[in-house]
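hiii so um. not sure if this is the right channel but i have a protein structure encoded as tokens and i wanna go backwards to a sequence. like what aa goes where. can anyone help
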């Protein structure tokens, strides 16, 4: 399955992965969680316990106004998530390019005690 792999501090890259549960868990380093933060048929698959395990913060998710509403911790990948299927699929070429640009720059996060 062709996915867009996004690791903390690195630029995104296309990758072929085993689409099995075990294969996906190996990529994110633990139990998987799929979220659907985009209007496109795309799933963001991350480590379900990333924040609890203290994995490095990776990329921010922003609302339509550009405000951060969540930060993904640890390595994650984007794959296809057709509405008419319960299975993940390869990410289409156009969506690979779109999200490669969207997540192109590694992000740094600063924790401030208030």
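sure thing!! here u go:
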């Amino acid at each position: 399955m062709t996915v867009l792999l996004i690791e903390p501090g690195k630029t995104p890259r296309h990758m072929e992965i085993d689409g099995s549960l075990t294969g996906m868990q190996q990529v994110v380093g633990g139990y998987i969680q799929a979220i659907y933060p985009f209007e496109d048929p795309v799933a963001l698959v991350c480590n379900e316990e990333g924040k609890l395990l203290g994995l490095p913060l990776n990329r921010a998710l922003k609302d339509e106004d550009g405000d951060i509403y969540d930060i993904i911790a640890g390595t994650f990948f984007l794959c296809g998530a057709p509405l008419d299927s319960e299975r993940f699929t390869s990410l289409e070429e156009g969506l690979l390019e779109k999200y490669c640009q969207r997540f192109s720059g590694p992000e740094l996060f600063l924790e401030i005690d208030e």
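oh and The chain has a mean pLDDT of 93.
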